Amino acid sequence: QVQLVESGGGLVQPGGSLRLSCTASGIMFNIYAMNWYRQAPGKQRELVAHISSGGTTNYAEDVKGRFTISRDNAKKMVYLQMNSLKPEDTAVYYCNTGGPTFGYWGQGTQVTVSS
Q1: Residues 75, 86, 43, CA angle at the centre, nearest 5°?
Q2: Which one has a higher pLDDT value, 22 or 30?
Q3: What's the whole-number mean pLDDT along residues 71-80?
Q4: pLDDT digits (tens, 9 = 90+) for 39-70
Q5: For residue 63, how many other CB atoms are within 10 A of its CB?
Q6: Sign of torsion, CA 107 68 66 104?
Q7: Residue 101 CA from chain centroid, whole number
Q8: What is the CA angle 50-55-60, rounded to 5?
Q9: 3-class DSSP assignment, residue 29
Q10: Residue ranges of E strands in the chain
């Protein structure tokens, strides 16, 4: 079965950086687009970044220029490099493939940006 496992979350000060990782299994990783979503307390889950099977990327407006999504097909991994973090980036971050309705999700990793 499909499994997505995130890692790399934690507590970071404003302006700091974190790199999230997601390891996939049970899928032909190289043909799937991959997504990072996040959900802050009291808010709906939102798409943060998307990378196609060919490497084309898209970002939510409020993370453009600060976050970078990338993938390593050989390792079946997708990454989210997050720089210049702000308190409003605090959320649980989820790895996803297949979209929000019928796709697959990881368990999430908590990112807290606070001084």
Answers
A1: 85
A2: 22
A3: 97
A4: 999 999 999 999 999 999 999 999 999 999 99
A5: 21
A6: negative
A7: 17
A8: 25
A9: helix
A10: 3-7, 10-12, 18-25, 34-39, 46-51, 57-59, 67-72, 77-82, 91-97, 104-105, 109-113
